[in-house]
Amino acid sequence: MALLIGAGRYFQINPTIVKATSSSLFIYEVYGGGGSDNNGLKYDFVELYNISSSDINLAGWSLQFASDNSANWSVVSLSGSIISSTHYLIQLTGGNKGDALPLPDLVGSLTLDATSGKLALLDTTTKVGKYHDPRDDPNVGINVIDFVGYGSADASETAPAGSPSTTSSIQRSSLIDTDDNSADFIVGSYTPFNSAISVASYIMTAPDSPYDTGQCDMTFPIARNRVTSLTSSQLDYFKTSSETASAKLRYEAWATNQGVSDPYVAESIQPYALITFKDKVTAFSVYASVITLVSGYFLVKRKRLRQ
């Protein structure tokens, strides 16, 4: 299976988010045909996207699914953290047919339906009660962060998204959530992005002059923060996968331009013990000058008081 960086996606280096109901995290893509078609994928998957400016810890969150006309909800607890402005791939149940997914960020045991269903993202692991619409549950309705109905679902945000198949998914057409599933989602070829591919895509959206100093100054710090925030397995995927090879070369070229010897280590404030001797002498000289000035001020003031 070939995944093209940025193919069928809406990407911005610094996306401007229009006010929407899902202000921090939303469901980006849903595929429920896992394992049932040689031309599809082996596993169901859900892809989340963090539209906020901060990483989000998923501990205590859940995905919950019900069939199109059902009030019986299945729950999978979530874990890990989603990097700001990054996708997060959750592999669910599947079968023997189809292609493998990219390395998932998380593996869960939820089973989706290929053509119709209801999927909710909640910031609690409490199971939705016997309600067709999870937002109607007085116990957890307030915890529903995002909700998607597709196909012939009897509940959704305004109207259901289209009906996907074993070889297609529903996915957002932009980073704007209008609270209308039929408007926010389109049916199309599945494009599962894990966090490593998502970071790689950000790097590849930069202009065509990857070694320009100005571009490096502006883009490299953001890219470095995202790359070094990847889990160890996702970082290894970024370094070794053919899907991210071009982004890896560009990222390392930026690092060379910036004089960074190891771009896979997070930037940190240099401790005093590691500051060069020259810098220590300079710092001491400044300190001594300040002390001299302060001492002189109090000496003059003392003399005036004696007069």
Could you give a quick summary of the protein structure above?
This protein is of the alpha+beta class and 307 residues long. 26% of the residues lie in helices and 19% in strands. It has 3 domains: 25-188, Sandwich (Immunoglobulin-like); 207-257, no CATH class; 272-306.
Model description:
The structure is a single chain. 26% of the residues lie in helices and 19% in strands. By secondary structure, the protein is α+β, with helices and mostly antiparallel strands. The chain has 3 domains: 164 residues, Immunoglobulin-like (Sandwich); 51 residues, no CATH class; 35 residues. The chain has a 6-stranded mixed beta sheet. The chain has a 4-stranded antiparallel beta sheet with strand order 5-4-9-10, with no helix packed on it. The protein has a two-stranded antiparallel sheet with strand order 3-6.
List keywords for this structure.
disordered N terminus; 307 residues; 6 helices; four-stranded antiparallel sheet; six-stranded mixed sheet; disordered C terminus; Immunoglobulin-like; 12 strands; alpha+beta
Q: Which helices and strands occur, and which strands form pairs?
A:
Elements: E1 25-31, E2 43-50, E3 56-57, E4 62-66, E5 74-77, E6 81-82, E7 87-94, E8 106-107, E9 117-122, E10 144-150, E11 169-172, H1 181-184, E12 185-188, H2 195-204, H3 213-227, H4 232-240, H5 245-257, H6 277-306
Parallel strand pairs: 7-8
Antiparallel strand pairs: 1-2, 1-11, 2-7, 3-6, 4-5, 4-9, 9-10, 11-12
Helix pairs in contact: 2-3, 2-4, 2-5, 3-5
